[in-house]
């Protein structure tokens, strides 16, 4: 809480004289937060209609309406407080005191939602839940990719039934897969430019070096 208050005052001081509105563009936005020994990788997917999806560490998914999406974007971008309030009052035609109250409440919740050891969204923050599969997402929430079946362990609980000698996908096949998956994103050109090349090269190097590599990665993770 004290961290949020300090951040708010820093935003307030740095916001004077700033005039450009900070409206989010559709697409996939990536953030990394590290504080107090905790580390969170955050993806904010913004759809063309303004609604959004907040994904934390590829295992916590939150659906956001357009106003919540805008506030999440402003907070994650560390926008100065005055700029954030100007964006909200102009976009949603609400009084400044209402925008300040809503934004403060939202950012306090957001601070907890993006922390790995933060408050429980349901029992402590009273966030509304959505029945699984009740809505069709604009793109997959997550993609898990096993790069190789080679492994020097013999774990009794391993789910992998294939033989360890089963052939891996080629670098070209991995790239075609990433192209197809990237095309499902709101902004595939930005997604692929930022991540496809790095991911495929890393996968190819890992396989060529015959390392034990069984990573789980969310689509677009940088």
* Number of continuous helical runs: 6
**Percent of residues in beta strands?**
5-15%
Q: Biggest sheet: strands, sense, closure? A: 4 strands, antiparallel
- As for the number of domains, it is 2
Rg value: 20 Å
By secondary-structure content and strand pairing, the structural class works out as alpha+beta
Structural shape: elongated
What's the total count of β strands?
4
**How are helices and strands ordered from N to C?**
HEEEEHHHHH
Low-confidence stretches: 1-6, 8-18, 186-197, 209-222
Residue share in helices? 25-40%
First-to-last CA distance? 29 Å
Keyphrases for this structure?
222 residues; alpha+beta; 2 domains; four-stranded antiparallel β-sheet; 6 helices; 40% helix; disordered N terminus
Q: Would you spell out the secondary-structure blueprint of this structure?
A:
Elements: H1 2-15, E1 27-35, E2 38-46, E3 52-56, E4 60-64, H2 66-76, H3 81-92, H4 96-113, H5 171-182, H6 188-208
Antiparallel strand pairs: 1-2, 2-3, 3-4
Helix pairs in contact: 2-4, 3-4, 5-6
Describe the structure.
- The protein has 222 residues and is of the alpha+beta class.
- It is 40% helix and 13% strand.
- It has two domains: 2-113, no CATH class; 139-222, no CATH class.
- It has six helices and four strands.
- It has a four-stranded antiparallel beta sheet with strand order 1-2-3-4.
- Strand 1 and strand 2 (38-46) form a beta hairpin.
- Helix 3 (81-92) packs across helix 4.
- The two termini are 29 Å apart.
- The relative contact order is 0.14.
């Amino acid at each position: 809480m004290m961290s949020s208050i300090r951040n708010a005052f820093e935003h307030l001081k740095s916001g004077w004289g700033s005039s450009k509105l900070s409206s989010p563009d559709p697409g996939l936005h990536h953030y990394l937060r590290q504080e107090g020994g905790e580390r969170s990788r955050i993806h904010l997917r913004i759809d063309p209609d303004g609604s959004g999806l907040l994904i934390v560490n590829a295992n916590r998914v939150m659906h956001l309406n357009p106003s919540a999406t805008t506030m999440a974007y402003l907070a994650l971008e560390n926008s100065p407080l005055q700029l954030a309030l100007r964006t909200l009052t102009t976009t949603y035609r609400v009084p400044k005191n209402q925008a300040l109250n809503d934004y403060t409440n939202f950012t306090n919740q957001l601070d907890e939602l993006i922390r790995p050891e933060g408050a429980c969204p349901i029992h402590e923050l009273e966030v509304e839940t959505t029945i699984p599969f009740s809505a069709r997402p604009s793109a997959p929430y997550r993609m898990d990719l096993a790069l190789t079946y080679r492994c020097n362990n013999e774990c009794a609980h391993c789910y992998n039934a294939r033989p360890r000698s089963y052939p891996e996908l080629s670098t070209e096949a991995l790239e075609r897969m990433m192209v197809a998956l990237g095309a499902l994103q709101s902004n595939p050109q930005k997604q692929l430019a930022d991540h496809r090349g790095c991911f495929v090269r890393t996968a190819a190097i890992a396989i060529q070096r015959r390392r034990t590599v069984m990573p789980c990665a969310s689509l677009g993770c940088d």
